[in-house]
C-alpha cells in the first residue's frame, strides 16, 4: 500500500514539489488530495481576478435575463422557435462530444417520429384525423417523461437514504441510474411540450376557430369542437368522434380529450375560440390529476435552463477569454 503523501504548499518551492509528485502509485484519495493542493497553488494570489470573473458572471446573467424577457414579450413567436431549436440541438453537441450513444439513438427516434407528426400538423388542408394523432403522440411522450422522471427521482432519493444497499447496488451506480432517468424525463418532457405548442397553433389556425393574434376566421357552432374541427354530437349513421365532452366557464364545449391536450400538452390556458382563461383547477378536479399541472409548470421553468443557460455560460467564458481572465 502506498504511503500517505504529505506536501507542504508554500510559494514556488511548494508548487514545484506538487508538480514532481508521481500520482501513479497513489490511492484515489491521495491523488485527489494532491490534485486539490495543485489547484489551490495554481490559483493563489488570483483573488481579485476571481472576484472580477464572478461579477462578470452575475452581470451577464442579469442582462441576459432582461433581454430574454423583453424578447419573449415583444416577439414571442421568434423567441419560442429559437428556444425550441436550441433545446433540440444543444444536447446533440454534448452527446456526440461525450459519446452518449444511447441518448443519441433515443434522440434520433424521437426526432424522426416528431418530425413526421409536425409535418402532418402543418399541412393544408388539414386531415381530419391529424389533430388527434398529434395530441396522442405528444400525450404519450408526456406520460412517459412524467413516469421516467418520477422513477429517476425515487432512485436518487432511495440512494440518498441508503436503500440501494438492500439490493446490493453500489451508490454510484444507483445515483447514475437515477440522474440519467431524471434527465431523460425532464429533457423530453420540455421538448415535447414546445413541439406540441407549435403544432397546436398551426392546427388551430388552419381549422380557423383560433387565431393567436387576431379574430377567428370561422364562427364556432355549438356542435363543433374548435380544437379538432370535428362534430361533437354524432348521429348513429354519421362519421365522427364519440367521446365525453367538457364545457368551459365561457360555455364553449369541446371533446374532453381535445381540450385536455390543448391545455396540458399544448400549453394553452385559454379557450381555443374566445381566449377566456381556463380554470385548470376546475378542469382537473381529481387530486390525482393535479400533479400533471404542476409537472407542466416545472417543465416550463426548466426550458430556460436547458436552452439558454449553456449559451450564457459560453458568453461569459468568451468575455473572460477576451479580457485575459482565467
UniProtKB/TrEMBL annotation:
Gene3D superfamilies (UniProt xref): Zinc/RING finger domain, C3HC4 (zinc finger) (3.30.40.10)
Keyword tags: Membrane, Metal-binding, Transmembrane, Transmembrane helix, Zinc, Zinc-finger
Membrane topology of the entry: Multi-pass membrane protein
Coiled-coil ranges from the UniProt annotation: none
Regions crossing the membrane: 53-71, 78-94, 100-119, 140-162, 174-191
InterPro entries: RNF121/RNF175 (IPR040176), Znf_RING (IPR001841), Znf_RING/FYVE/PHD (IPR013083)
RING-type domain ranges (all copies): 225-275
SMART domains: RING
Keyword Membrane: yes
GO MF annotations, alphabetized: ubiquitin protein ligase activity; zinc ion binding
Single GO cellular component term: endoplasmic reticulum membrane
Major location category of this protein: membrane
Domain of life: Eukaryota
GO process terms (BP): ERAD pathway
Keyword Transmembrane helix (UniProt): yes
Subcellular location: Membrane
UniProt xrefs under PANTHER family: E3 UBIQUITIN LIGASE RNF121 (PTHR13407:SF1), RNF121 PROTEIN (PTHR13407)
UniProt name for this protein: RING finger protein 121
Species per Swiss-Prot/TrEMBL record: Phascolarctos cinereus
Amino acid at each position: 500500500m502506498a504511503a500517505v503523501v504529505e506536501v507542504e504548499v508554500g510559494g514556488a518551492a511548494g508548487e514545484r514539489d506538487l508538480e514532481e509528485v508521481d500520482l501513479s502509485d497513489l490511492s484515489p484519495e491521495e491523488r485527489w488530495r494532491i490534485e486539490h493542493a495543485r489547484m489551490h497553488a495554481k490559483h493563489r494570489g488570483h483573488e481579485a481576478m476571481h472576484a472580477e470573473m464572478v461579477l462578470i458572471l452575475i452581470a451577464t446573467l442579469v442582462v441576459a435575463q432582461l433581454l430574454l424577457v423583453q424578447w419573449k414579450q415583444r416577439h414571442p413567436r421568434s423567441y419560442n422557435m429559437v428556444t425550441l431549436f436550441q433545446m433540440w440541438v444543444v444536447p446533440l453537441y454534448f452527446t456526440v462530444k461525450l459519446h452518449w450513444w444511447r441518448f443519441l439513438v433515443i434522440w434520433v427516434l424521437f426526432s424522426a417520429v416528431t418530425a413526421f407528426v409536425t409535418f402532418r400538423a402543418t399541412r393544408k388542408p388539414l386531415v381530419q384525423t391529424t389533430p388527434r394523432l398529434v395530441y396522442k403522440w405528444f400525450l404519450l411522450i408526456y406520460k412517459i417523461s412524467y413516469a421516467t422522471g418520477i422513477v429517476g427521482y425515487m432512485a436518487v432519493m432511495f440512494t440518498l437514504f441508503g436503500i440501494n444497499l438492500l439490493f446490493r447496488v453500489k451508490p454510484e451506480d444507483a445515483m447514475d441510474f437515477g440522474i440519467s432517468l431524471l434527465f431523460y424525463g425532464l429533457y423530453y418532457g420540455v421538448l415535447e411540450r414546445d413541439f406540441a405548442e407549435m403544432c397546436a397553433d398551426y392546427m388551430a389556425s388552419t381549422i380557423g376557430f383560433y387565431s393567436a393574434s387576431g379574430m377567428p376566421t370561422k364562427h364556432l357552432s355549438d356542435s363543433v369542437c374548435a380544437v379538432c374541427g370535428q362534430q361533437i354530437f354524432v348521429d348513429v349513421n354519421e362519421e365522427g368522434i364519440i367521446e365525453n365532452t367538457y364545457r368551459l366557464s365561457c360555455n364553449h364545449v369541446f371533446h374532453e380529450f381535445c381540450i385536455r391536450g390543448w391545455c396540458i400538452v399544448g400549453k394553452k390556458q385559454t379557450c381555443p375560440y374566445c381566449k377566456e382563461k381556463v380554470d385548470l383547477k376546475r378542469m382537473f378536479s381529481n387530486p390525482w390529476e393535479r400533479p400533471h399541472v404542476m409537472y407542466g409548470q416545472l417543465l416550463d421553468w426548466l426550458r430556460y435552463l436547458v436552452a439558454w443557460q449553456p449559451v450564457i455560460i459560453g458568453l461569459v467564458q468568451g468575455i473572460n477569454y477576451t479580457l485575459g481572465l482565467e
